[in-house]
């Protein structure tokens, strides 16, 4: 078991909260990504969990026991940092073995565990190499082996892939996911890259300005962003001002039925670009710009009755027409999600 609980955690710098009343649970064996723009408090949260920073309020527990009285070295956590932090004068073996030696593990066990850890990260037999003889990706694998060899209950990853090139990032993130799954190790992974978070996480915790806005599975986060900020940050979104009467919503010529409590007043309807499609029976629209992005086309549309253009993604091979329809939308009041909405077919006047 290794269940983490951030309970009402706050951290202030010069009286300003870097993390404000964070409540977040990470289940045993779960991989949770902390995601958000620069300065949102994700690194501060991770460092409090690791013991490098002390919270000003709240508690962090592991399996119900507070971690706060323990220094970093006494916590059952191991961290991998953004920059390869290998000791350049030590070979791979000694880099990975370092923590075990501090723990007075026997020589034979050190050799066995280092061998196993290197195998796990795909670098078997590399013990004798010096860090300068390794690529960036290999160095980060060694850093991962150095963390895993300690058999921590909790693995902490602080932007571990951000100094690698794009292709390598994609392959290594897949490997990290597979390794932590195999080991069943509770993992907290900090990233500002939403695609990375979507690809690796069981759940993503999205933070803005020190506040947690939503912690959900990637699919849920994408389909039902809890706040307008999450909706804007994750993927691409069209926002339209709308008004409501009960469960009937209007955004210019678009009419929706809200699946939720009746509501009144000003709202915003948010529509993913891929949920806008060409349909001859839809609302008149004109393509004002278009870019071919390979597997799909991105189009700006001027839709009759709407002030702002709508962005749509059109799969390769699909044609366009002079009218559009909407598949689904999500609705925000005061920046908070109030529900999903489905379009009401437009009555065609004859
Ligand atoms: N040592 C410090 N002294 C003062 N302010 C700090 C300190 N460390 C962080 N902050 C502030 O706390 C807030 C949260 O910082 P944090 O590093 O946790 O954000 P982050 O989401 O990890 O950002 P990034 O992706 O840029 O690392 C920021 O406003 C930052 O400026």
UniProtKB/TrEMBL annotation:
GO molecular function term, any single one: ATP binding
InterPro entries attached to this UniProt entry: AAA+_ATPase, ABC_SmlMolc_Importer, ABC_transporter-like_ATP-bd, ABC_transporter-like_CS, Mo/tungstate-bd_C_term_dom, P-loop_NTPase
SUPFAM superfamilies per record: MOP-like (SSF50331), P-loop containing nucleoside triphosphate hydrolases (SSF52540)
PROSITE patterns: ABC_TRANSPORTER_1, ABC_TRANSPORTER_2
Ranges of residues in domain ABC transporter: 4-234
Pfam family, one: ABC_tran
Keyword Nucleotide-binding: yes
Entry keywords, A to Z: ATP-binding, Nucleotide-binding, Transport
SMART domains registered for this protein in UniProt: AAA
Protein name: ABC transporter ATP-binding protein
Species whose genome carries this gene: Deinococcus rubellus
Taxon lineage: Bacteria, Thermotogati, Deinococcota, Deinococci, Deinococcales
